[in-house]
Amino acid sequence: MPSFYKILGVPATANQSEIKKSYHRLSLKYHPDKAGPDSTAKFQEVRIGHGIRSTFIDLEQLNAAYEVLSDPAKRQQYDQSKKSKKPHASRRQSNGPYPTPPFEKDEFEVPDSSDEDPNADWEETQKRKRSSGNTGRRRRSSTSNKSSGHKRQTQAEDEYREQRRAQEEHRQKQKTERGQRYNKRKREAEEAEQQREENQQGQKKWSEKEESVPQEDMFEKARRRFMEEESARQLAEKEEMMERRKAKDVEAEERFEAAREAWKAEQDQFEAARKKYEEARKRYDDAIERWSHDQRASGSFWKSHGRETSQ
């Protein structure tokens, strides 16, 4: 019986995740939907030296190996049975019954393909498998393996179809993106080519123009253009300076007018104050004059009155 670890292609220390990944990978690789109706994927060509031999890949062995190794309890029992393989082999050689192991041996019994003839065809290999070993035990193990294998095969088919659908969508998306990138690069290349042609035409026209004009005339035109630009620059500077001066003169004139208006206002105030002062001075003089007149009149009155009383 071949090793289940060898069938799945994993080491004896592999964990459950590695076993599951290897099983799904091999199921998809050797699935009939992928291999075609003739199931040619059940045979893998292996080159040895200058010859080619066919190595049999049996899906029933693959399903049985995964069923045992995916269950920790069955895997432990299987590892223990591998350690006690030699006594079992000696008893099988003597055509004696199997000793009672800690688990049912039928659960792990699968068709052995390790001693097949590399040149044998498919039918002879299948006949030799069916004719070897205990028929009843093989029938029971084959029934259980087929039921569990059919279930896993259905799951593998669904996963395979889903994977194919996702791959097809991914390929279609990549194809669309490649088309878009190609069209974009094509447009950019056309625009670059058009720009290059325009530049070449412009350079050609400029070269023809330079060839048609003598070098001295070009220098004279450049000097004249420089003088015109310099004159225009100086004229612009002068105009700007005149504008600044005019602005300064206008500002100074405005300040002068404001000062003159303020001086006029002060003069008007002074004249008004002077007039008030003159009016007040006049009233004061009039009051002094009346008071003096009253004093004189009063003095003469008393003088005359005093003489009359003395007489």
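(the above was protein one; protein two follows)
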Amino acid sequence: MRTLDDDDPGRPPRPRPARPQRRSFTAEQKAEFVRGYEACPDGKKGAYLREHGLYSSHITKWRAQPGKDAARAQQKRADEIEALRDKVAALEGDLAASQRTVVTLGKAFELLDQISKSSDKETKSGRC
């Protein structure tokens, strides 16, 4: 099959029309569509769907979705809480180790201070 472009090889090919992009809706928009659909009287529901470019299968699917979204969000929160608890436990372990180090350094300082004072006394008493 030949097209007009085949007759003139120097002419650039015609651009193809852009493919339509699939629409996507947020959970809030989906919930709003479901509420709007359910608020319509029985004879007007089809008109509501046509007005918004939707199908009844969308509404059916979206009615079941809030439960799934809530469960998914709850699991995500539980995972975040578990990760934060692990982080807190690790930080508390680091804090305990740091506190032990401070106590040890304090004892070492006291010991060195006592040694220093006793050597000063011996030096002073040895001169006389």
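Reviewer note on protein two: Residues 56-127 form the longest helix (72 residues).
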